[in-house]
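Holo prediction — phosphoenolpyruvate.
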Amino acid sequence: MPGVESVLRVLKPYKLASREFHPDPTRISVGGVSVGPGSFAVIAGPCSVETEGQVESTAQLLQRSGLKLMRGGAFKPRSSPYSFQGLGEQGLQILSAAAGRHGLTVVTEVLSEYDVDLVSRYAGVLQVGARNMQNFALLKALGETRLPVLLKRSMMGTIEELLLSAEYIMKGGNPHVILCERGIRTFETETRNTLDIGAVPAIKRLSHLPIIVDPSHAMGNWHYVPAASMAALAAGADGIIVEIHPNPAEAMSDGKQSLNYPHFEDLLTRLKELAPHLGTAVN
Ligand code: PEP
Ligand code: MN
């Protein structure tokens, strides 16, 4: 047709998330940290917000360690309706108060489209949990916000499905999506899930979006978390989100996979040693 200079065949079903039209990697700036190439973001904190003291001690540890992004769940997606469901808005208040005192930004899960406004008042990054990767009503609502979204791969989601879920958010007008590999369900039972470390280079090739790894939910056992974190760094991930607790034996959720503070500090030391050899730096 006259006036048409070239026609590009769209090969991937996800257009905005694909490298095809956006060859350069995307960096997402949040709370003074750039998530993307050249920076390995370490997001840490408890599985669930339990008490003010617990979150305050986490925030102090992160500040001391030079980290900026604190995780913590206030709305918890629990397999059993009888398990602790999180403190809700009170948990968000505890998180944001501690974050404010220590110059941190909150990363926390939003479970439903009805809670997006509420959680956005306290959070710097909105987390979509594995169980909600294909909650399309939630993804559409997040497309209307401009806060960065941490989108976790579901336990049975393919890489293409993860990228299509990112596409929902981006199509809505929010380009700030960080992907997260958190383990997929396989026949293995020693680990809670199977960390699909291969997803990291695959997603790097297919998409310009940053991809981080959650070694805690992938492994389900704190003993395995340091090695999985180092593997994430070596595989080219843009960061990790890791569960820590001042006293994992007493955690209200996911104590088994939570690092105590000394073990977390050891891990940070090792990540900081390795990062420069891979052209990146822990943030
Ligand atoms: C979490 O990060 O607290 C969580 C519930 O993780 P996932 O959605 O990956 O199971
Ligand atoms: Mn957890």
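READOUT: The radius of gyration is 18 Å.
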